[in-house]
Amino acid sequence: MKNAIVFSLALALLTSSAAFAQDAAKKAGKKKGDPAKQMVANFLKGLEPAELSEDQKKEVEELFTKTAKEVVAKRKEAELPADIYKQRTEATKEAREAGMKGEELKKAIDAKIGLNEEQAKCWTETTKMLEKTKLAVGKLLKEEQLAKLEGPLKSSLTGVKQAPKKKNKTDA
Fold first, then answer.
1. At residue 46, what are phi and psi to the nearest 5 degrees?
2. pLDDT for res 139
3. What does the alpha-carbon distance between residue 100 and residue 104 come to, in Å, rounded to a whole number?
């Protein structure tokens, strides 16, 4: 009886530690993925409402993967910060609240993030590469598919900018 209890405890300990190790490995794996693959996966996820055919998915994935790999390589070489999107969002909000526009806005954002001239040039260049690729992807989609998409993604695929949202003014 004593042996059965010891055996049961040992078995429970082994299975729980194995499960814990697998969970830790999964969590670690999620954080350390190929950034280019993550970019492609995120882009394809955004296109899900368009219900792409298998051929379209394959073509979009090939096209976007090529660009994403180049973008990731250039950004890594220029040593752009890993959280650049978050930093840019915050810096853009602050600069717009200060009334900045155009080139002044761009320079203020770059300065706030702390990008040097080479990094700022890299960001602009790689962003344009992604824009061109998204326009090329947009040409692969049918009008009905584009109609199912909304917001900035649709704009980036069609090249047509969205009308700015009107702020509701409520009387107090």
1. -65, -25
2. 94
3. 6
Query: In this structure, are residues 79 and 122 in contact, taking their beta carbons and an 8 Å threshold?
Result: no
Residues 6+ apart with CB under 8 A from 56: 140, 141
Report yes or no: 71 and 130 within 8 Å, Cβ to Cβ. yes
To which H or E segment does residue 20 belong? helix 2-31
More confident site: 113 or 162: 113
Could you tell me the pLDDT band of residue 25, with boundaries at 50, 70 and 90? very low
Rg (C-alpha) for the chain, rounded Å, is: 23
pTM over 0.85: no
Quick one: tokens of 81?
A: 């910060």
Assigned token pair, 20: 């814990």
- Measured CA distances, 58 to 15, 71, 126, 146 (Å): 40, 20, 23, 17
How many other CB atoms sit within 10 Å of the CB of residue 30?
Answer: 9
